[in-house]
Amino acid sequence: MDTIFALATAQDRAGVAVVRVSGPAAHSVGMQMCGTLPKVGSFAVRPVSSDGDLIDRGLVLTFAAPHSFTGEDVIELHLHGSIAIIDRVLDTLSAFDGVRLAEPGEFTRRALENGKMDLAQVEGLADLIDAETEFQRAQAMQTVEGALSKVVEDWRARLINAASLLEVTIDFADEDVPVDVAPEVSALLESVMSQASDEISRSYVSERVRTGFEVAIVGLPNAGKSTLLNALAGRDAAITSEFAGTTRDVIEVRMDLDGLPVTFLDTAGLRESDDQVETIGIERAIARAKTADLRVFLSENVSDLPLDPLPQDIVVAPKADLRTDGTGVSGVTGAGLNALVQEVKAVFADRATHSGLTSRARHRTSLQSAVTAMKDASRLVNQGPEVYDLAAEELRTAIRSLEFLVGRIDVENLLDEIFSSFCLGK
Ligand SMILES: Nc1nc2c(c(=O)[nH]1)N(C=O)[C@@H](CNc1ccc(C(=O)N[C@@H](CCC(=O)O)C(=O)O)cc1)CN2
Ligand SMILES: Nc1nc2c(ncn2[C@@H]2O[C@H](COP(=O)(O)OP(=O)(O)OP(=O)(O)O)[C@@H](O)[C@H]2O)c(=O)[nH]1
Ligand SMILES: [Mg+2]
């Protein structure tokens, strides 16, 4: 087993930089660079040297397998966060035999392989590192803490219970069956099916929390959409001009609305156009507006537009400053801006109350196949003891789907994909 190392902190000048080393050679490498290591489970200031040349004086932490993040022997070098120090320390580490730079996510991969966390927790950890808003942090943190794993484990236990009730009956097949297990098995299946189905519908909301809710700003050319986007963003994200048809590409601005991750989309003004490029822009605008979670129609009259508002969509008049009725929004004067933001926030805050524990298509696929197998099992159980063996087989399929979800089985082919999205040093 290679010993791996990486910079765990951001690749830039900083107060402190942390280099982690994990694997069988971690302690011996540490002793060669630092003279002696602090005793296991503690930290101390040590010189960090290369061939007798003092690179830095750092804080050194020693962990011993299995009591570390990876479950292996680990040392951490907390260095001054200088680019030159980091380069020299990484160079020095790579010169040791059997010691190499870690791949993205490789520390976490070892933690998974050593049973320190399961696949759901690993995904949660990736989300936690990517979290930009409070809702994202809270959702990811509950997954890291094992909330999803615990629920799935509970469902799995109930299905195993149901399967064993069927197995007992199957074993008694030629004798008088002691009790009819069908009611108990059905009740177990019903409870898991309803909770899993509920989780599937919640997963769409959690997915939006994870990736951000999208709000498309749509309207006629020149309505002031780009000006509005810039006002929301507090910076010049999009080009604005007095010429109708200025915006063509969809411009995205990510925002944190009191912890809710929301991406505003500025789009091309909607009209019939002879300009081929503008027409492509308009097609993109309509496509993105349709898939967005919410649309803001910056429009006096939505029937002017080739798009109908959906129930929660917001319709607001443009250029409030040119109006006398006190309504509308203006990116120039800021009139109505706060009210608009509050309205968007309210819509998503309400949707976010329906979030759950799963946030990926992968989770939904597993849950869906588990539910399908449970439905089949339930139907078979109602047909009578002659087909209990078939029902038990369906239950095993459902159990395997749940095990796949938390990575108990069969996930080798998933790992490269999951870990490739991790940062270096994690
Ligand atoms: N310096 C530093 N900060 C860090 C981490 C790290 O690895 N290093 N973490 C990394 O992501 C996070 C904290 N999570 C951690 C989780 C488990 C262990 C760990 O060593 N667990 C051992 C028990 C350690 C002990 O004796 O207290 C274990 O589970 O056996 C370390 C960090 C965030 N902050
Ligand atoms: N008076 C007034 N003018 C505005 C307001 N918002 C935008 N404008 C002006 O209207 C013109 C068009 O603004 P844009 O923000 O580029 O309009 P748009 O909706 O993005 O236009 P397209 O990208 O062409 O669809 C510019 O000259 C802006 O300065 C507003 O609230 N009040
Ligand atoms: Mg524009």
From TrEMBL:
Stored Pfam families: MMR_HSR1, MnmE_helical, TrmE_N
CDD domains cross-referenced by the UniProt entry: trmE, TrmE_N
Residues involved in GTP binding: 222-227, 241-247, 266-269
Keyword vocabulary terms for this entry: Cytoplasm, GTP-binding, Hydrolase, Magnesium, Metal-binding, Nucleotide-binding, Potassium, tRNA processing
PROSITE patterns documented for this protein: G_TRME (PS51709)
TM segment ranges: none
Binding-site residues for Mg(2+), renumbered to this chain: S226, T247
Domain TrmE-type G: start-end pairs: 212-349
Positions of (6S)-5-formyl-5,6,7,8-tetrahydrofolate binding: R20, E76, K116, K426
GO molecular function per UniProt: hydrolase activity
NCBIfam families from the UniProt entry: mnmE_trmE_thdF, PRK05291.1-3, small_GTP
Name of the molecule in the record: tRNA modification GTPase MnmE
